[in-house]
């Protein structure tokens, strides 16, 4: 059965850095403190707001995205992405592992964001699942990734696992 095209809009915008101030209480966020970030539409722009735990009342219903993080210290060593080839190899290794489909989807979005692969559209496979169609100009390969947004319970684990594997520090 041929793949059927499905329309999806991908937003491309820059996420501003954390201001280190709580948008709710206006106090400075301290190193090591847990905080929440949310992206909201503000006219034609996307605005990032950061909240301390006591200032966080939950994500607004119109939020584009939100996440929980920990405030790094001012002198923390700078983080660096893993080389593009490493990220792409990890993405390829996850292919065919249904238990890691949500991780592969998140990694696909990261690869698109880092411009390692290009999003060529979405289609529906013969099982009725939505599939991202990707193209990598580096190796001229085409990839498919099931659209499997992670559950709320899996988000923190995926962040930790992917961060540990794909980021390094100056040290």
Question: Would you kindly provide a written description of the structure presented here, covering whatever features stand out?
Answer:
- The protein is an alpha+beta fold.
- It has 2 domains: 11-76, no CATH class; 79-169, no CATH class.
- It is 22% helix and 30% strand.
- It has helices at residues 84-93, 101-113, 152-166, and strands at 4-6, 34-42, 45-52, 65-70, 79-81, 118-124, 130-136, 141-146, 167-169.
- The strands form 3 sheets. The protein has a 4-stranded antiparallel β-sheet, with helices on one face. A 3-stranded antiparallel β-sheet has the order 3-2-4, with no helix packed on it.
- A hairpin with a 4-residue loop joins strand 7 and strand 8 (141-146).
- The longest helix is centred in the C-terminal third of the chain and has 15 residues, at 152-166.
- The protein is globular and about 50 Å long.
- Mean pLDDT is 81; it is low at 1-12.
Measured by DSSP, the beta-strand proportion falls in 25-35%
> What distance separates the N and C termini?
52 Å
Secondary structural class: alpha+beta
Mean pLDDT: 81
Task: Quickly count the domains.
Answer: 2
Q: Can you count the helices?
A: 3
Biggest sheet strand order reads 1-6-7-8
Radius of gyration: 18 Å
Residues in helix, %: 10-25%
| Number of E strands | 9
What shape does the CA trace take? globular
Largest sheet features = 4 strands, antiparallel
Give helix and strand order, one letter per element, not per position: EEEEEHHEEEHE
Low-confidence segments: 1-12
């Amino acid at each position: 059965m041929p793949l059927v095209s499905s329309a999806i809009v991908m937003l491309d915008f820059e996420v501003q850095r954390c201001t280190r101030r709580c948008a709710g209480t206006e106090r400075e966020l301290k190193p090591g403190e847990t905080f929440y970030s949310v992206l909201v539409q503000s006219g034609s722009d996307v605005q990032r707001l950061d909240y301390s735990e006591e200032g966080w009342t939950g994500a607004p219903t119109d939020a584009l995205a939100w996440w929980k993080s920990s405030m790094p210290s001012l002198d923390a060593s700078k983080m660096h992405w893993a080389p593009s080839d490493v990220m792409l190899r990890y993405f390829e290794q996850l292919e065919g592992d249904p238990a890691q489909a949500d991780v592969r989807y998140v990694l696909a979005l990261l690869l698109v964001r880092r411009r390692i692969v290009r999003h060529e559209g979405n289609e529906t496979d013969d099982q009725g699942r939505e599939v991202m169609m990707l193209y990598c100009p580096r190796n001229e390969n085409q990839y498919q990734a099931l659209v499997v947004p992670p559950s709320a319970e899996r988000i923190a684990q995926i962040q930790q696992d992917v961060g540990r594997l794909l980021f390094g520090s100056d040290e």
